[in-house]
Design a protein that fits this description.
This protein is α/β, with parallel strands linked by helices. Helix content is 31%, strand content 27%. Helix 4 packs across helix 5. It starts with a strand and ends with a helix.
């Protein structure tokens, strides 16, 4: 049976609010069989970092310590959100792409992005080079396997971080806009979601704001904003 592809309304929020919202999309969204996609922005300068990263290392790599710094529920490195295009995709556990190897899901999703970028003549490709060492890093400093890079150049355009639970697969993605200055973002949004819908064999539906309770969202936001979460390692 085909899964609906729900596009969630755009929001602008703090780092902790954005992380809480994404986690609720993965864990609490109804209907549970819907694919979920959202694009969002940041109300203040912000950096996010991977679930397993060391907080002291992260702060040593960030030049603006007045910015918000928040640990993601996904993996990956430090991401500067001051000039990026940010999105989250959740694929329910019942969908075949959620059940496969995460690296193959990552590759397929980023190929959709390459197709959307190339429709506006930004020539990009997937990175097929595996980094020599798996040290923690600042996300756009080096390309990981299947990240999006400029064609014939080493410059990384886009990367993402993943998480899989019993409820499904979540990818939090970021495109570095200075390397995509020719892109019209409203058109990209449309083209990218169409490519994803083709990949996932789903039909796009524009929906209203999800229906979890404000108290639930506030409690989770407080958790993502806490020192206990962000400085836990």
């Amino acid at each position: 049976m085909a899964h609906p592809f729900h596009i969630i309304p755009d929001t602008t929020a703090t780092a902790a609010q954005n992380m809480a919202y994404d986690f609720l999309l993965l864990q609490r969204y109804q209907p549970a069989d819907a694919i979920r996609f959202r694009h969002y922005e940041w109300s203040r300068p912000a950096y996010t970092f991977g679930l397993s990263q060391n907080y002291s290392y992260v702060t040593s790599e960030i030049s603006d310590l007045t910015a918000e710094i928040c640990r993601r529920p996904t993996g990956g490195g430090v991401v500067d959100h001051n000039d990026d295009w940010t999105y989250t995709l959740v694929i329910p556990a019942s969908h075949p792409l959620s059940k496969g190897q995460p690296i193959e899901s990552y590759r397929a999703i980023h190929q959709c992005m390459v197709n959307a970028l190339e429709s506006q003549d930004l020539l990009t490709e997937l990175n097929y080079n595996t980094p020599e060492e798996a040290a923690p890093s600042v996300c756009f400093n080096k390309a990981e396997l299947y990240d999006v890079v400029l064609k014939n150049l080493p410059s990384k355009v886009a990367g993402a971080a993943q998480k899989r639970t019993k409820n499904g697969y979540m990818l939090q993605g970021s495109i570095w806009k200075p390397l995509a200055s020719k892109i019209t973002w409203a058109r990209f949004y449309n083209d990218f979601t169409i490519e994803l819908a083709k990949l996932l064999e789903a039909e796009i539906e524009y929906v209203s704001t999800p229906s979890w309770t404000p108290e639930e969202e506030e409690a989770l936001t407080a958790q993502f904003d806490s020192d206990a979460w962000n400085q836990r390692r």
